[in-house]
Each structure stands twice: as structure tokens, then as C-alpha cells.
Design a protein that fits this description.
This protein is mainly alpha-helical and 97 residues long. It has one domain. It has six helices and no strands.
């Protein structure tokens, strides 16, 4: 299946296809917001991250900084943050791959 034919899971942005997502992403803030609210899978996240490689590099840097800050928090707070942002584990894996 080509990237264009990929469908996205239901999301608050109302986007249904990979093409719609690419057209919607006009800035880094759009890119970051999409990563935060769409339940990406490896199959949908990888082409999106590759398509916006500059944004991906910036996002990876921000994630590393956030991880450093969160590492200073008590364990229960870190676990709570990770549970609320489960998508970050997949993105971290793909970006640091």
C-alpha cells in the first residue's frame, strides 16, 4: 500500500488519509501537534517522519531535552507522564532507531 492510500485512525484533527495529513502539515507546530494527537503506528509514523525530516530532527532534539527534564522527577510522576503519552515510546524508538 502506498503512503497516499494509508488511512489514519480517528483523530481530533478530522484527518482521514496520509495525503490530508501531509497537506495539513504546513509548519513545525502542525507536525508536532499531529504527533501528539494521532495514534500513529509504525506503518503510518515512519513515512510521516521521513517526509518531514527537518521537523523530525527538531522533534527528536526536543524529546531528548524533555526526557532529561523528566528523569529528575520522582518515579511515580515519570510513570504517570509516560502513561498519558504512550505514543512517545513509539516515536522515540523510530526517531532514535
Amino acid at each position: 500500500m502506498g503512503d497516499a492510500a494509508m488511512t489514519l485512525p480517528d483523530n481530533p484533527l478530522g484527518l482521514h488519509s496520509f495525503d490530508e495529513l501531509v497537506e495539513w502539515t504546513v509548519s513545525y507546530l502542525h507536525f508536532k501537534h499531529a504527533l501528539e494527537v494521532i495514534a500513529f503506528t509504525t506503518e503510518t509514523a515512519t513515512p510521516y517522519l521521513n517526509r518531514f525530516s527537518e521537523f523530525s530532527s527538531r522533534y527528536a532534539t526536543e524529546m531528548k531535552k524533555q526526557d532529561i527534564l523528566e528523569a529528575r522527577l520522582p518515579k511515580e510522576m515519570r510513570e504517570s507522564i509516560e502513561a498519558e503519552n504512550a505514543h512517545r515510546a513509539l516515536l522515540r524508538e523510530l526517531l532514535n532507531g
